[in-house]
């Protein structure tokens, strides 16, 4: 058996073992989208991930968003190692959670108080419960294609979670819960007005920039219109900034657009690549969490020391501004050059260090537009780039990210590979 065949079998062998142990062979569905089977990662450094098969891939997935500094940055790794020497779980408060909360409240304009949890899913689940408890209303308004995590209230018309598996809503979600969710199309302010007029909506929850139906931007006046309507009808506004928080700017999308919600959910970047979530917002609202209020939330791993130190170290780097300069420049160059390369019908949506390519459509302003895109063509692009050792998300409905590790030489290398691949696609 030749050497090449032996190395290829490493991921294949692991995949065969994984299928015996996990549903669909994975612990998060998108990981199974790489065909004919997922590659298994051994390590990551900077803009690269290294597979067990000996391949070095330029990574534009970046853990689906958290790794804005790139893989294993020394500034973060050192802090994690220092904390490991002290211990990693106590079940008591630590000063670290105060330090990270101060970082977050100093940058996110609407954040006065914080509750740490362990994931974006936990954050949106708790935020919805908080909104209902605060307003004494039961209904939530969300937008078709917005993904708010893998809990019952989030899995109603939930972007990639629904589309990739051909279900509008996950099986197992009770009709009683579905009936408490109202749906509007993203960028449709008239629908929002109509729904809120009934004055039974506890909160509007939304991604200020959609990131789980591909990248979809809010139209002019859409966010400001929702802010005014929620105030008029005494509903809360929740921004799900799990993806955009500390990504599109250090103050998140709300700082970029200067629209300030009542509650914000955060995750991903604020943990520096370790599991984390946070619910932040007006003090009078956050105070409704137990023990000061009657909206229950608790967690053994809430404010986990390792996540706290990784988050602090990451934000300290972001405060130096260079990560945004490098990451945003990288995305801008890639988008501009890809636009020049692609000759067939397409559109690219782009903001800061996030973008996505949609084939076969002229524009993508909402989930319905995204679903009309030719996802088979996108997957062909993914597969061809992977052969060239460039890793973009294995789903039309995810986001391509850049980081502070995507320097000019890496971008130039990527462009050379893109030129070859897109030339074959055109």
TrEMBL record:
Keywords: Cytoplasm, Isomerase, Porphyrin biosynthesis, Pyridoxal phosphate
Keyword Manganese tagged: no
Catalyzed chemical reaction(s): (S)-4-amino-5-oxopentanoate = 5-aminolevulinate
Localization of this protein: Cytoplasm
EC number: 5.4.3.8
Any Pfam family hit: Aminotran_3
Pathway(s): Porphyrin-containing compound metabolism; protoporphyrin-IX biosynthesis; 5-aminolevulinate from L-glutamyl-tRNA(Glu): step 2/2
Family assignment from sequence similarity: Belongs to the class-III pyridoxal-phosphate-dependent aminotransferase family. HemL subfamily.
Protein name: Glutamate-1-semialdehyde 2,1-aminomutase
Source organism (scientific name): Sulfolobus tengchongensis
Source taxonomy: Archaea, Thermoproteota, Thermoprotei, Sulfolobales, Sulfolobaceae
């Amino acid at each position: 058996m030749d050497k090449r065949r032996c190395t290829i079998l490493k991921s294949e062998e692991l995949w065969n073992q994984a299928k015996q142990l996990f549903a669909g062979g994975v612990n998060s569905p998108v990981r199974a989208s790489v065909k004919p089977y997922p590659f298994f990662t051994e390590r990551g450094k900077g803009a690269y991930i290294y597979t067990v098969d000996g391949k070095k891939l330029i990574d534009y997935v970046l853990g689906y968003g958290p790794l804005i500094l790139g893989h294993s940055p020394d500034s973060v790794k050192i802090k994690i190692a220092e904390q490991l020497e002290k211990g990693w779980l106590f079940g008591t408060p630590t000063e670290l959670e105060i330090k990270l909360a101060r970082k977050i409240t100093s940058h996110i304009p609407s954040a006065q108080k914080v509750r740490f949890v362990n994931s974006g899913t936990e954050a949106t689940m708790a935020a919805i419960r908080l909104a209902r408890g605060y307003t004494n209303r039961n209904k939530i308004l969300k937008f078709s294609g917005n993904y708010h995590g893998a809990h019952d209230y989030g899995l109603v018309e939930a972007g990639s979670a629904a589309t990739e598996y051909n279900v509008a809503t996950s099986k197992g979600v009770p009709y009683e819960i579905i009936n408490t969710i109202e749906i509007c199309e993203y960028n449709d302010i008239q629908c929002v007005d109509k729904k809120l007029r009934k004055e039974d909506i506890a909160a509007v929850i939304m991604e200020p920039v959609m990131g789980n139906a591909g990248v979809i931007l809010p139209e002019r006046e859409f966010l400001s219109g929702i802010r005014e309507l929620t105030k008029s009808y005494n509903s809360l506004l929740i921004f799900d900034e799990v993806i955009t928080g500390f990504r599109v700017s250090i103050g998140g999308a709300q700082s970029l657009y200067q629209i300030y919600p009542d509650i914000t959910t955060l995750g991903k970047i604020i943990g520096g690549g370790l599991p984390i979530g946070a619910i932040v917002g007006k003090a009078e609202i956050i105070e409704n969490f137990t023990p000061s209020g009657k909206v229950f939330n608790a967690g053994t791993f809430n404010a986990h020391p390792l996540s706290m130190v990784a988050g602090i170290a990451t934000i300290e780097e972001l405060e130096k501004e260079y990560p945004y300069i490098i990451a945003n420049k990288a995305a801008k160059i890639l988008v501009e050059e890809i636009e020049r390369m692609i000759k067939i019908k397409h559109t690219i949506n782009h903001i800061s260090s996030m973008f996505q390519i949609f084939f076969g459509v002229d524009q993508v302003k909402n989930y319905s537009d995204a679903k009309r895109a030719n996802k088979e063509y996108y997957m062909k692009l993914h597969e061809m780039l992977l052969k060239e050792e460039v890793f973009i998300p294995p789903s039309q409905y995810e986001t391509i990210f850049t980081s502070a590790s995507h320097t000019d030489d890496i971008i130039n290398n990527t462009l050379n590979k893109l030129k070859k691949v897109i030339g074959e696609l055109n």
